[in-house]
Amino acid sequence: MTRPQGPHTAIAAARAAFDDGRTYDRMWRVSQLKALAGLVDAHEAAIAAALRDDLGKPRAEALTTEAWLVRGEALRAARALPRWMRPRGVPTPLSLFPGRSRVVPEPRGVALIMGAWNYPLLLTLSPLISALSAGCAAVVKPSELAPATADLLADLLPRYLDDEAVQVVQGDADAAQRLLEARFDIILYTGGGRVGRLVMTAAARHLTPVILELGGKSPALIHESADIGEAARRIAWGKFLNAGQTCLAPDYALVPRRLMDPFVDAYRKAVREFGGPDLAASADYGRILNDRHVQRLAGYLKEGRIALGGRVDAASRFIEPTVLVDVPPTARVMQEEIFGPILPLIAYDSWEEALAFVRARDKPLAAYAFARDTRALTLAERTISAGAVCGNDVIVQQAVPGLPFGGVGASGMGAYHGRAGFDAFSHAKAVLRRPARFDSGMRFPPYSETTLRRLRGFF
């Protein structure tokens, strides 16, 4: 196994690789992206095993929500690079004729990528794809809370990628702090708001731009016109996936008061369909990260009436998909990001009331609206500010290659994924080229009134 570098050695190696100019080359970028896809192809079994060790993640989830997404994104970026890297011409004012103006994307430099534990492969390698496509060198810090996946990345990345330009640093919060003390050209952090503020504070010392993916409480709004059975099924899937430990998972649902019981019944049917009569024995349902998170989630179960589920087995880190009703809006479960398979339901009497409830809170990473009435969907899309809005489904917007992934307000800043990632890790350099000798002379003093009248026509 390749031994991971210490922070300062890793940063120096990545900086030297960037400074020698190799990452600017399109073929270098393409080769790195294809190698990353090859890593996934060659090690699917090892990836699935590591994710099972860290999160009890089912094999189907490990492949469909992590490994294959990484593979597909890397190959799409490799194909798109000639188009993304092409300079873009812009009009040049007549006053600067003859001249040629263009915007040239150039790599920002050395990126620090700080991955997350809940999707420890995807949320580490997807930002790396953006950095590599833009021509950046990178220092990658996998989450220590997913140690099996972190060890696998530390072993495989140097074997498949440029082992000077891409460095892996492992360790706990102290290692992360040492990294943040150094100068980077861009930092991407995925995680909670508390640490996000620390990252931003550290970055400010070097005026380093940051991309923060911070999550938040993503609502699901059920309209009177919604197909209740299908809405409940899709929301249940969103909470079933990774045992609810997904930053884009619906965190609570707003349901018309008269449809509360039908929604709970449909949700119960969906959970049974997904997991069978004994969910704890299902090969398709994951586990909570650690004992601390199990206790945190179990505490939420006391903050409302359990309408469905509620079973907790701390020894196996199992928490049953649970629906809470009669939850006060001031309860902790409605103030904190849940990150687990618990869904509070809030009753409402009008669509405008439901929309206002969401707008009165921090802007979420995603908002989900379920309706067959297209006017209701349009109103939700127009009036809810969120990182993403998805109609009649949950989470799947993340699988659209052309959509950026990012938050707004308390749910984050900046975005990546596909072209948005290339742009985020690139600097749009303004370039103007003029001939060395030709010049009208009008812009140079001394100025006469006649000259000023002529110049005015150029503006």
Break the fold down into its secondary structure elements and pairings.
Blueprint: H1 7-19, H2 26-42, H3 44-55, H4 59-85, E1 88-90, E2 100-107, E3 110-114, H5 122-134, E4 137-141, H6 147-160, E5 166-168, H7 173-181, E6 186-190, H8 193-204, E7 210-213, E8 218-222, H9 228-240, E9 250-256, H10 260-275, H11 291-300, E10 305-308, E11 312-313, E12 318-319, E13 322-325, E14 342-348, H12 351-359, E15 366-370, H13 374-383, E16 388-391, E17 405-406, E18 412-413, E19 415-416, H14 419-424, E20 426-433, H15 449-456
Parallel strand pairs: 3-4, 3-6, 4-5, 6-7, 8-9, 8-15, 9-14, 13-14, 15-16
Antiparallel strand pairs: 1-2, 2-20, 7-18, 10-13, 11-12, 17-19
Helix pairs in contact: 2-4, 2-5, 3-4, 3-6, 4-5, 9-10
Strand segment tally: 20
Mean pLDDT: 95
Query: If helices are DSSP runs of H or I spanning 4 or more residues, what is the number of helices?
Result: 15
Q: What proportion of the residues form beta strands (DSSP E)?
A: 15-25%
Strand order, sheet with most strands: 10-13-14-9-8-15-16
| Helical proportion, percent range | 40-55%
Q: What Rg is obtained from the alpha carbons, in whole angstroms?
A: 25 Å
Largest sheet: 7 strands, mixed
Unreliable residue runs: none
Structure classification = alpha/beta
CA distance, first residue to last residue: 64 Å
| Shape designation | globular
